[in-house]
Amino acid sequence: MIRSRHIFVLFAGVMAIAPWVFSESLVTISNYAGLFCLVSIGLVLLTGVGGMTSFGQAAFVGVGAYTSAYLTTVSQWSPWLTLFVGVGIAVLIALVLGALTLKLAGHYLPLSTMAWGLSLYYLAGNLQFLGGHSGISGVPSLVFFNIHIDSGRNFTYFVWISVGIAIWLASNLLSSREGRAIRCLKGGRTMASAMGVNVPLVKLKVFVLSAVLAAISGWMYVHFQRFVNPTPFGLNYGIEYLFMTVLGGAGFLPGAVLGASIITILREVLVDYLPALFGQSGNYETIVLAVLIIFLLHRAPEGLWPRLLNVLKVQAQPDFSHIVANEGVALVRKKVHPSKGELLLELEHVSKKFGGLSAVNDVSFGVRSGEILGLIGPNGAGKSTTFNLASGVNWASSGKVIFLGQDITQCDSHQVAALGMSRTFQHVQLLPQLTALENVAIGAYLRCDAGYLQSMLHLERAQEAQIMSEAMRMLQRVGLQRFAHTLAGNLSLGDQRILEIARALCSEPVLLLLDEPAAGLRLKEKQDLANLLGHLREEGLGVLLVEHDMDFVMGLVDRIVVMEFGEKIAEGSPHDIQNNPLVLDAYLGSDES
After folding, report:
1. Which of 80, 359, 453, 532 pairs with 369 at a CA distance of 20 to 30 A?
2. pTM for this entry
């Protein structure tokens, strides 16, 4: 059985002997492919995993290239020193650009990166101290411990070792708590924020990291070429980098290598043969590449890397979570839980308007430690909106939301989560491409503090082992341990809802908000869920529950709040609610109806 590591070892072996068996032209092509790989790896993190589209990576390549070219030729700086300067400038630009656009949804980031790509191209072409369109020549080659990297063959080792290190660092990052936060950016931002992830900050970090990789590629490029002009840093190259990433497989780090290599080789072949075929010169390779890419993406929408693994029947290596889930020490509980009966959450005359529509109007109630409060009402009554107001997804138009004595009316979800509130969602929000265990581990994000540098260097493995052990403990708690290493997207709807509860519990909450947790569950599963919630109540956890199954609610909760048309119409014990005339008329149905 072929394993994924066999492919990597084989590729590494080929690149080790390539400088000695390849022709000079092939060595040059492989060097360019390696440079493009660095940019593509950043785009895998940014676009394939993080779900953010950038057309401006070529401009960041240009920042690294021009910074080093200017400082080494004019100021006679060491090339190694200019690497840090170029990366620093790229970081500053990415911080400014990201801060202005990443908080906005939709097309703002692609448009801003397109503008950035165009601006650098024309700026470099019109500034005379950067050589204008003629560029800067005479850039020195690199010297590493008295080894002169001044030939294509020497450069091959330098660039591909750098690619290997970049893939290793990025892979380490994606298998950490910060990596799971990055994965949440693509289709799970609301959920991530509810688990304590500062989504705008994570987006900015990934954007900066991709810019750093591009700037490093530019620095290497200029010392390989020994010359620079604006041409390789235009918008068309930014689009091509994106093509490489998508073609290889935008969600897979090895796909960056595959896509960059294929595009680089194809371009060189087409440039050599198409003019002879058509009898005249022209940019025919661009047209042919575009057609080929459209065809390949139609046949393999997820890219070529997953298709290659499927064809070769490659078996993935067991990941870290498989190894340590049952061996590590569970996370230490940090929160001091309030005493039973203590007021946890209080809504004081809360209202929410969307334009002219009043979704919630003057609603007040509280949830105490060690009780389950049911929030019921017909569809459109405002229950989910009330949930969102309590958890920071939306801000109240008027009134106050108090949690553990603190006014959280204007707090974001990740700030509320840090105080000890966790929740599930009416429409299940999981990462289907991750295992059940990894999804639950997202809930422990705030319980550890390992950052990007620790994660990339694998210095957080002790914390990661604790996270996985805690996640397994939560799966055992809800009865889903047998699905620990099953992809969440392959679970039934009922199991996915229970999985959301396990993820919420992994955050160590003092208050749990459950939005229709029994929907899609069979009778036995509902009974198990009721038993679980009963145990949580005995442990002193507060639970706010929205549910349509009245048999489930009436046999479980301590108190009920009834809403209709965005207003609270009743509050009391299950017995009181069942006999309340307003509730009978509005929701449960009276005997006269």
Report:
1. 359
2. 0.91
